[in-house]
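dumping this here before i forget
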Amino acid sequence: MTINDIQDEIIEEFSELDDWLDRYQMLIDLGNEQEPMPEEHKTEENLIEGCQSRVWLWAEERDGNVFFLAESDALIVKGIVALLIRVLSGHTPQEILDADLYFIDAIGLHEHLSPTRSNGLRAMLKQMLAYALAYKTIEESKEQETLPLSL
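structure:
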């Protein structure tokens, strides 16, 4: 499933709920349903700066795709990061870097978040993109090592 397919699916799910209290509850449920982050990844280096609440984000590359795990001590923030993981996890670094995350505005998330939560959303997204860029750079350097040298 492509990043856009997943975003369209999320937009459809949220469009079924008219009330923002129901949408907040959906975010909380999404956060509670996500895979828990192992304690060994809840380190200072995985803590995202710029979030009012504590958010840990960890990524690994497997078979050319980036997979994310996250945890937060705030229920709605945990749901927001669960949405980001649902959209971006399991895709190549380039797909993540090229993604236009239109679902955020389409479901009205930006307009219903406090300024501090909006800053946190940007910080989470920035960190996910940084991981994707790092894995892309590693991938490109490996490709350079396998190219034949010309004299």
